Model the fold of this input.
Amino acid sequence: MILKNHFITIAVLISSSLLNACQSDVEIINDQIPAPVVFKLEREWNLSQIEKIPNPSWSGVLHDGSLVVVDRSLYTINHFDAEGNIIQVFGGEGRGPGEFSNITDVTVHPGGKVAVADIRNARITVLNLFDETVSSTDLEPGWHTRLSWNSEKLVITNYPFRIGQSNPGDIIMRKLNLETGEKKEFYHLELEMEDPPFEQISCTFCEFLFQEDHSFFTSPQDTSYRIFRVNLDTGKQTLFSRSGIPAVELTDKEKNERRQELKRGSQLTGISVEELEIPTHKKRFSDFFLDHEGRLWALLHTPASKPFRFDLFNSEAEYIGSMNAPEGFVSVEHVWKDSLLFRFDNAQDDILKLRLYTIKETGTS
Done:
């Protein structure tokens, strides 16, 4: 499994280097306008239980204000109350019901359901934290398996492993019936794997964001400013974009880290990467999500000396404003309607720092 993980790392870096030339730096930046919203801090957690969560990789907040943290190293689902006290720990390493061997993705539903993709056990497990019921279904192996809650439905996406298939690439989107365990395909996206055209909307390792009707947002992992919304009923593609925004150059430290990743991956896989150029710029987006008003939030990479920035668009793909992420922000952990769970940097590696915000319209209390 370690071998496969390093092969994925190489694939992502190769993709980044090939697409790096898609957009060069631009001197002129469009005027920024203030976003019509602000963040209101609701709750903060500083979890120091290093023995329970040495490698916290996924987090989410439930309707009752409690917190879920899934640890990748211990294969555990940890349930904390609103004050940060541990309520219960589920899972652990193994192959039995409710146990995990290689967690590749997790999604948390505020109603208490936690869905876990385990590629080594080849199954998807759904745990209900409130009644402690566990259900599972087979997981079709594939690259970049991702889970997401679309209301009460669980959506599964991946690029299936298929011997001899190289072009075009297939990304299969399925919805899971939690009661029957039946998976139903609702969209089949075909992509060019070799020399993908600039017009291509997505990629094998790209992310997908689904709406209630299963229409989705996606973006190429390059330096271009492009997020696409695809309407499944009509096939229409809507582009969310801004011009005149310069790409962000990698620092010397970041370039060296990528060189070391490629070197380690090459030693393990035997794949030669000596001729591969290290990307000079970061991909455009760190993340993107929808809020309770249907606005698209695009989280942009920024230079190391500046805070992360959100650009906001309305449902008609019109830019409506920008705002900086809070100081010390690291990542978006969980989004549900008007609630945002952010992870923050800290000086101590043994503390997980999370803050829950709500989105408030400008001028409202």
